[in-house]
What we know:
The structure is a single chain. By secondary structure, the protein is an alpha+beta fold. It has helices spanning 22-32, 65-91; strands spanning 2-8, 12-18, 38-44, 54-59. The chain is flat.
Amino acid sequence: MEIKVLEDKKNKLIFEIDGAGHTFINVLKSELWNDAHIKVATYSIRHPITSKPKMVVETDGDESPKAALASAISRLKKTSDKLKDEVKKEIK
């Protein structure tokens, strides 16, 4: 995956993620909404074959969009690791 920042302001971050589709981006968007400082967390994909997902993250100013994004990714990693461990335990 390659990330290209399109706009980086105090409370707003807009970026594209090359190599990601609806599934990954939607999970990230959903996790961002678990942060109390998030005002906007959304994405768009103009065309599923030719477009890169564009994500918008906006906060209330008490937390930067980059910090909110890093926290959301960290929480997703923990959830993913927990799922992996549970699957390994059950499948043996």
